[in-house]
UniProtKB/TrEMBL annotation, chain B:
Residues 1-22 form the signal peptide. The keyword Lipoprotein applies. Keywords: Lipoprotein, Signal. The lineage of its organism: Bacteria, Pseudomonadati, Bacteroidota, Sphingobacteriia, Sphingobacteriales. It comes from Sphingobacterium bovistauri. This is SusD/RagB family nutrient-binding outer membrane lipoprotein.
Length: 1026, 509
């Protein structure tokens, strides 16, 4: 079986090139090569002025784009619907306009009049749903939102997920910061697990792809080149994703890549250059130098010393650290084909610099894709995507955030840029005479420049499918795909680096992981009695995952300038091998009935078997029921559109791999041997269940120039599977168990409006708004408050508490009276209340993404506003800066006299207002202020522009002077501007990323623990068409 | 057409067939589930050394051996505030790294009993007893009966109950070792890094642990005779229980955790890494080491326990104040103090003590002192001091000088409890057991004449002395809130609540 599978995959991969190529050759009389030849000749063939009138059933239409497919020349119709364009007889004219079906007309006459048909704007389009099934949006019974490739690219983000920000109602997307290799997390409709991955399933062209972010590096969907994307469907709810069963609990992102189109070969290319600078930074005090408790002390790394003297230089290290960097991004794609063979090929190269010194990204991607019609009934599609993504990362890993804490707290008396001697040896900023450097202080720049982390990925995604149309009502499809990722992650500590690895250290892990998806579908589509439509899909699916890795680590380089295990003493090298595997099978069915365009009801059922649970728990069934009622069909359907949809689904989720039994592992101690693995097994794990109810409506008015989509959902997660730290008396440190239940509920609204549409200007505006709230309803055992491993900071913790918001913040507050006044002690200082309680909710109260697109003649402008209202940030960066004395507020308040606003308890039990002035000295800050969580929780609002992109397409007459069919210019700014009340850097923070190491990373969205602020970037782009 | 249907049927059939038996792969093929006990014991012994260190890491400060250099800078050691820590490493080292590897669901005892290796059972139980005893002496009540049974909210047993359990473990361990099966797997010096498989020495250590434990409660249980019996049994065969590190190694995990390299091996937590580099010897330590202040003559062990500072001076800093201590000469820098590294117990290659022989002499001295056998107490006291001087490699002449100096009680009549306790304090330099002694005596100046209340302990504590550690905040407070509530361990001043044997102690003041 395995060999068979390999053979199939191999032939699919080759199928794109060799058979595809030979097809073209064999049929030298095929349209394909004909068209190719024609295309070249047409350039030189006789050009006529073709003119005509474009109208719809109510009269002439202005502003319709008329484009000669072969040459790319385009014009627009005038106010009277008239156009005139240079083209040859035999050419194809393509008429496009927002709100109308595009029409292709072959020129046979110099006068070519065309009638366009009004479309139901976005609603009549076909959308890709679960398992790649295309459905008419009109009859859809659940909420699916689509983002086009063009809208995605307008954001100019290298990571697809960042490009989706604000474009999906209900998607909380937060990146871990603005340095290469940092992951981005996407959560649809709230968190459903407290530890582990909450992210939706990622599907590319029907196969499951890797989106892990192991070692805290970038989430792997970022390997996919945005240039290749045709569109993205976001299946937000369980009903939409129900056919994915075991993976459906967090929704699904279904990506469709571009494919070849029959017609003349089109060649497109683009080049973009980005200049990246630092965005919004936290501020520091510039008054006090090193010391503790107010006394100058050179040996201290704290900045709690005396005031700087006038003759001492104060370095603005945070500014000095970051740099301005350049990024280049080039893409080329070719697309064309005949009726029987279509192809798409693309190549991309990105060389990205970063504002963080010594970090960069080099990425190469190739995609080849072809579809061949073998007979009138059979067609084959195959694609191969190769990506090489090499990232050099800066400080630290992603397990607990803290990338720039060392910069934020580095004393301002030292120049951060002084870190090495001219001969390359470390230049310590402070070292004691008896120390060899092990305990010395050095600029964080040393770590950035000399202790790099490298993540090298080679990835092949191959995908093949065969479609067979057995009869006009029965279609069969088989698809086999593999996503293979080879990843190397290496960290080096150069000898001389202060700390435990003073003699040098190298660690490398190499792994090959693969997802193999094999799917068979049979689709029956039948009309019964004219008005009834029946559709039935039956299918089976196999999903295999394997990751095999070998790693080593070693310390103490015998030759200090070679960073290799070859120069480490043999017994100092620790080797390890890992191998994880998972197999899942499923059978499923999808039955839907519709009556005219009025009523649709659907039902799906899926049964999953998984290897990750014990035999008695390993299979489960996921049903869904849904229906839609297009009530506008009853009352003048031509004037408007109105639909109501309701759905309910229940899906399951299995456990992480190998969590049902306990292993021993070899240990590095004197004497060696084996110890119990910190992660204990739990044979009693049950599948996690999620049930979701969704109700929504779609409304369209004014010829579909105004569309509204509104959804309410409630999702319950039962027997949630967690892998947290557990009480040590259990015998383990970490364990997977069914930990409790929670719900999320919310509303999503999406409004699309075209306020202006005339000859010259089209303005389209889309507003996405959403709100999610959640509640923990049950915990296993006696737990009432559960902090997440990766976000337990000194004063506050990202935590969930029973009967409270899931994404909460726990910590301490001051003691308060019943009326809420802070209680102040007799000495004038506020009293700390030791009880841990919920002191914040990291979920925004309301989100709005607002996308505008304006076309004016050759110009197009798009910009994205992003508004966030409410939701708290745990500002641990500020806490750390305060405790080391570099925080801005230390400069403002230290040693000042202050009267706390609070009340003092009297002996008779009454309270009087505090009027006692106290001095805010070091002891106050250390023993009071930064031990209180509420001092570091901030409620955040922001208004920010995610991007502005201005494009200009040169008139074709001008472009042709350069020998081009199309020449476009683009200016763009990413993250140019933000207004926020946040006291730190950029308020988009997520300290541990989606998938951080250790005991599984719960969402750390809203936790600022040394986050690298998002950069501000400006770009210039050039794109051409041949 | 037929051909395609045929092809699809085959594919579908293949898919179905391949699904059989392929689901049983949820086991890790590259990691073992069980190994023979001789492959478990060495790492348990290494972990026990780590575990004892993790208790001493903070207890050494609470016992006034050392204090932070800058003063008022470390929440736990200077202000006695344990409210803002995330993890208590000592909890994990006992329950998981030592305890679970011995008697957890995948522990050594299981395989040892399956294989009939009752020598490993015996040694395992004695080590578990030591681990439980030292852990309960810093934490107080904790899970014993319900530990390792799979529950996430086990009952916390009283310390009294745990002491009973420790004694049972010792008895059972001794019994196994007295009846080692001839078929049991061999235990040589590459497996047993402490005694090289000498069961009599293990039995003696078990008696030593018993003596240590009984001493904690003897004062209020009238148990000194039991202490004396156990200590005599122990001394008959006793050899120091020391965990040895290689004399030279570049590897983090082959170094003593008190060492200058400040090792930070796998799964070590930041707050467990030693901070002697930022610490100074206290004035209490320097007073204990000073034989004659006017002539600057010191206990010869001063030069063995520490190494000279750059300025070759021997100042002592006040607890919690460090260089902030205003009684220090003006312009004092850290180089005016002894260097804490590379002493007998604080080098990368130092041995880590489970229990040393001089402790037994001092246990005996204290027990005899309280039973009014001053003669016996005096000779045990002298033996304790001498054993320690010899261990530290003090020259013979200096030993004779020091033994005759006025730093030691020179007659039976002059012997005070302070003489015994302060010499034990020196002999058990940096060991957590000292903190037990200090708490038993309620930080009293009768036993410890030079102790005082630290200046930077928070006013909030109301002048109370620190008595215990907090439980691991990251797990116990989360999973077991009812037990935490019952014990009152959630309050800010939990660490000031005396343990059972300190509460009942009659030795305070």
């Amino acid at each position: 079986m395995l060999n068979m599978r390999k053979y199939l995959l191999f032939s699919i991969a080759l199928g794109v090139t060799i058979p595809g190529y030979s097809f073209a050759k064999k049929s030298s009389l095929s349209n394909n090569s004909d068209a190719l030849i024609k295309a070249y000749f047409h350039l030189k063939s006789i050009q006529n002025s073709i003119s005509g009138l474009v109208s719809d059933n109510s009269g002439p239409i202005s502003g319709v784009t008329v484009r000669v497919v072969e040459t790319g020349v385009s014009v627009s119709t005038d106010t009277n619907g008239k156009y005139s364009i240079n083209a040859a007889i035999g050419n194809t004219l393509r008429f496009t306009s927002i709100g109308y079906d595009p029409v292709d007309v072959k020129v046979v006459n110099v006068v070519t009049n065309v009638q366009l048909k009004v479309i139901d704007n976005s609603l009549d389009e076909v959308v890709v749903t679960a398992l790649g099934i295309e459905r008419n949006k009109k009859n859809l019974t659940y909420s699916v939102q689509t983002v086009t490739g063009d809208d995605l690219r307008a954001s100019n983000q290298g990571n697809i997920l960042n490009g989706l920000q604000g474009k999906i109602a209900g998607a909380q997307i937060s990146s871990s910061g603005g340095s290469p290799g940092l992951p981005t997390e996407i959560i649809l409709r709230g968190s459903s697990s407290l530890t582990g991955d909450n992210q939706p399933l990622m599907i590319v062209d029907g196969i499951r792809v890797n989106n892990s972010s192991s070692n805290g590096t970038v989430n792997r969907i970022a390997d996919i080149n945005p240039e290749d994307i045709e569109d993205i469907s976001i299946l937000k709810g369980a009903a939409a994703a129900a056919l994915y069963g075991i993976d459906a609990a967090s929704g699904a992102i279904v990506i469709t890549t571009k494919k070849g189109k029959a017609g003349v070969m089109q060649i497109g290319g683009s080049y973009k250059a980005f200049v990246e600078t630092m965005g919004r930074l936290p501020s520091q005090q510039t008054i006090y130098t090193t010391g503790t408790g107010g006394t100058y002390d050179e040996s201290s790394g704290s900045s709690w010393g005396r005031k700087f003297r006038y003759d001492e230089t104060i370095y603005n290290n945070v500014q000095r650290f970051f740099q301005t960097a350049l990024t280049h991004d080039a893409n080329l794609n070719i697309n064309g084909g005949s009726e029987i063979l279509q192809y798409y090929m693309s190549g991309g190269y990105r060389k990205a610099g970063s504002m963080v010194p010594n970090t960069s990204q080099d990425k190469i991607s190739f995609l080849m894709k072809g579809t061949a019609k073998l007979s009138s009934k059979t067609s084959v599609t195959a694609s191969a995507n190769y990506v090489e993504n090499d990232i050099q990362e800066g400080l630290g890993g992603a397990s607990a955030g803290g990338w720039i804490n060392s910069i934020l707290t580095y004393p301002l008396r030292y120049d951060i840029l002084e870190y090495q001697k001219p001969n390359g040896e470390p230049l310590y900023s402070y070292i004691e005479s008896e120390d060899d450097g092990r305990n010395a202080r050095i600029s964080p720049m040393w770590g950035v420049m000399r202790n790099p982390r490298n993540n090298n990925v080679n990835r092949f995604i191959v995908n093949g499918s065969v479609d067979y149309k057995a009869t006009d009502w029965l279609k069969l499809n088989y698809r086999l795909g593999q996503d293979w990722t080879s990843s190397k992650y290496r960290t080096v500590t150069t000898p001389g680096t202060p700390g435990s690895y003073f003699e040098g250290f190298v660690s490398e892990s190499n792994s090959n992981s693969k997802f193999i998806t094999s799917t068979f579908n049979a689709t029956v589509q039948k009309k019964i009695l004219d008005d009834f439509n029946l559709s039935l899909i039956l299918g089976a699916n196999s999903d295999y995952y394997e990751s095999a890795g070998v790693g080593y680590q070693g310390e103490g380089f015998l030759v200090p300038d070679i960073f290799s295990p070859n120069v480490i003493e043999r017994d100092g090298i620790i080797l390890s091998e890992s191998l994880s595997r998972r197999q899942r099978y499923a059978i499923y069915g999808d039955l839907s009935f519709s009556y005219k365009n009025l009523l649709t009801i659907g039902m799906t059922g899926r049964n999953d078997w998984t290897s990750t649970l014990s035999p008695q728990h390993r299979q489960f069934y996921s049903p869904s029921y849904s229906g839609s009622f297009t009530f506008s069909e009853l009352i003048s359907p031509e004037d408007w559109f109105g639909k109501l949809r309701v759905s309910y689904a229940k899906v399951g989720k299995d456990a992480p791999i190998y969590r049902t039994n306990t292993n021993l592992r070899q240990v590095a101690t004197v004497g060696g041997g084996f110890v119990v693995d910190a992660t204990g097994g739990n044979p009693n794990l049950r599948p996690e269940r999620t049930s979701e109810f969704e109700i929504g409506t779609e409304l369209g008015f004014w010829n579909r120039r105004l569309n509204i989509d509104f959804t309410y959902y409630k999702r319950e997660s039962i027997d949630m599977i967690m892998t947290p730290r557990v009480p040590l008396p259990s015998g383990y440190v970490i364990m997977t168990f069914n930990a409790g239940s929670l719900w999320n509920r919310g509303i999503e609204a999406s409004v699309n409006i075209i306020p202006v549409k005339n000859d010259n200007i089209t303005w389209s505006s889309t507003l996405n708004a959403w709100k999610n709230t959640s509640k923990m309803t049950q915990f296993a055992g006696d737990i009432v408050r559960f902090p997440y491993t990766n976000a337990q900071l000194t004063v506050g913790k990202a935590a969930s508490a029973l009967d409270e918001h899931v994404l909460g913040i726990s910590g301490t507050d001051y003691k308060r009276t019943e009326e809420g006044y802070v209680v102040v002690d007799a000495n004038g200082y506020p009293v700390i209340d030791a009880t841990e309680k919920t002191i914040g909710n990291r979920e925004p109260e309301f989100n709005i993404g607002w996308l505008n697109k304006i076309n004016y003649k050759g110009f197009n402008l798009s910009f994205m506003w992003d508004f966030r209202f409410g939701g708290d940030i745990l500002n641990a960066s500020r806490q750390r800066m305060m405790s080391t004395g570099t925080g801005y507020d230390v400069g403002q308040w230290r040693d000042k006299e202050f009267v706390f606003n609070g009340v003092v308890a009297q002996e008779d039990g009454s309270y009087v207002k505090n009027e006692k002035p106290v001095v805010l000295n070091y002891s106050f800050f250390a023993n009071n202020y930064y031990q209180v969580g509420t001092n570091f929780v901030e409620k955040i609002n922001w208004a920010r522009v995610r991007y502005i992109t201005l494009g200009y397409t040169l008139p074709s007459s001008l472009a042709s002077k350069f020998g081009l069919n199309r020449l476009g210019l683009e200016f763009s700014a990413q993250n140019p501007f933000i207004i926020t009340n946040y006291s730190g850097g950029d308020p988009e923070v997520n300290s541990a990323g989606p998938n951080a190491g250790g005991a599984g990373g719960a969402s750390t969205m809203g936790v600022d623990n040394g986050a690298i602020p998002l950069p501000r970037a400006f770009s210039f782009g050039l794109n051409i068409g041949l | 057409m037929k051909r395609y249907i045929y092809t699809f049927s085959i594919l579908l059939a293949l898919l179905t067939i391949s699904s059989c038996n392929k689901l049983d792969l949820n086991y890790n093929p590259v990691q073992p589930v069980t190994v023979p006990s001789n492959q478990r014991l060495p790492s348990i012994q290494a972990n026990l050394a780590y575990s004892l260190y993790s208790q001493a890491r903070f207890a050494a400060y609470h016992s006034y051996y050392v204090t932070s250099r800058t003063g008022n800078s470390n929440a736990q050691t200077d202000t006695w505030n344990y409210n803002n820590i995330n993890r208590m490493g000592a909890w994990r080292w006992h329950y998981f790294d030592v305890g679970s590897n011995i008697s957890g669901p995948a522990g050594m005892l299981l395989r040892a009993s399956e294989d009939g290796d009752n020598n490993y059972t015996g040694v395992g139980k004695i080590m578990l007893a030591l681990s439980f005893l030292s852990a309960t002496d810093v934490f107080g009540d904790m899970p014993y009966e319900e530990a390792y049974n799979g529950t996430f909210n086990p009952k916390y047993d009283s310390q009294e109950r745990i002491y009973q359990g420790v004694e049972i473990l010792l008895d059972e361990g001794i019994l196994e070792l007295k009846n080692v099966s001839p078929l049991a797997r061999s235990m040589n010096s590459s497996v047993d890094l402490i005694y090289g498989g000498d069961y009599n020495k293990w039995i003696a250590l078990a008696e030593g642990i018993r003596a240590r434990m009984k001493l904690h409660t003897a004062n209020f249980k009238n148990g000194y005779q039991d202490v004396i019996n156990a200590v005599n049994l122990a001394l008959a065969n006793f050899d120091d229980a020391l965990f040895r590190y290689p004399s030279k190694s570049d590897l983090n995990f082959e170094k003593n955790l008190w060492g200058e390299a400040r090792p930070n091996p796998e799964w070590q937590f930041a707050d467990i890494r030693n901070d002697l580099v930022n610490s100074l010897p206290t004035d209490v330590f320097m007073k204990a080491m000073t034989v004659d202040a006017t002539t600057n003559s010191y206990d010869p062990r001063l030069y063995k326990l520490t190494t000279p500072g750059v300025n070759r001076k021997y100042l002592g800093a006040k607890m919690s104040e460090g260089l902030r201590d205003v009684s220090l000469p003006s312009g004092t820098v850290y180089q005016d103090f002894a260097n804490l590294y590379n002493g007998y117990w604080t080098a990368d290659s130092s041995m880590y003590p489970y229990m040393v022989k001089e402790e037994l002499y001092f246990i005996k001295a204290e027990a005899l002192y309280h039973t009014n056998d001053k003669q016996g107490a005096y000779s045990a006291y002298k033996l304790g001091v001498e054993t320690n001087l010899r261990r530290l490699g003090v020259e013979e002449g200096q030993i004779i000088n020091f033994l005759g100096s006025n730093k030691l009680a020179q007659s039976i009549e002059k012997l005070t409890i302070a003489d015994i306790m302060m010499q034990k304090w020196v002999a058990l330099y940096l060991q957590a057991e000292t903190w037990v002694d200090i708490r038993r005596y309620g930080y009293s100046n009768v036993a410890y004449p030079d102790l005082y209340y630290p200046r930077y302990a928070l006013a909030e504590w109301g002048g109370r002395y620190i008595q215990r550690f907090v439980y691991d905040p990251q797990t116990e407070y989360v999973y077991n809130p009812k037990e935490i509530e019952r014990l009152g361990a959630g309050s800010r001043d939990w660490v000031f609540k005396p343990l059972w044997w300190a509460e009942n102690s009659t030795l305070k003041n």
